[in-house]
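thread: overnight batch results

M.L. [08:02]
morning all. the overnight job finished for the chain we discussed friday. pasting input first so we're all looking at the same thing
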Amino acid sequence: MSILNVNILPCLSDNYSYIIHDKSFNKVIAIDPPVVKPITNFLKKFNLKLDFILCTHHHADHVDGNLELKKIFDCKVIGFEQDSSRIPGIDIKLKNHEIWKFGDETVKIEHAPGHTNGHVFYHFQKNKLAFVGDIVFPMGCGRIFEGSTKEMYESVVKIKNLSNDTTIYSGHEYTISNSKFFLKFDKNNIKLFERSKKILSLRKDNKPTIPTTVQLEKDTNIFFRCEEQDIKNSINMKNASSEEVFAKLRELKDNF
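M.L. [08:03]
and the structure it wrote out:
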């Protein structure tokens, strides 16, 4: 199995794009490039060529670099078939659950609506990596713009149901604001307090709080823990379903 080298590139005010380099096959992916310069600077520094762009959703702060990068590198843009009309420069249109091969890695595309109708995430199955765009963040989940609360809940659960040792890469640096919200409604969670301290330390040094793991989110992400009685009690929804709790928490976070 090829080991993939994942590089985190801060872009704009709080976006992250990613460069994935498969050294065995010398192939390179960029994920969700909102701008060109951080990508080209990185590739030039390490003498790499861009082969593919993977898009999680159509928002400008995830795709605005597509066309120029395609012009520079003649790379292929990959995205979800059902949202292809909104992804600039798309060449390869993948269906839900389809497997795309990157070297000897199998990359499964999963439709995960809620943030947008056509949002997807990419699961690198052998290396146990998930590039989730704006569905899940460290200690958070995405805002609901085009989909329903039910869809967003089900999309978060899809990521929660990946193996515990799956590494999650998100589209933005929102962790400090997420932790403040969580500390208000999950006051008895010792792991959350410990993680919040680490996050403040990382951000003080201008380091990313990404990546995270499924297990870490299960321990500290309130949106992964909607079935737990402590969480239900904290928002006065003692007998509510997990989905109802999720909807209430998303509403509270929107107004936090």
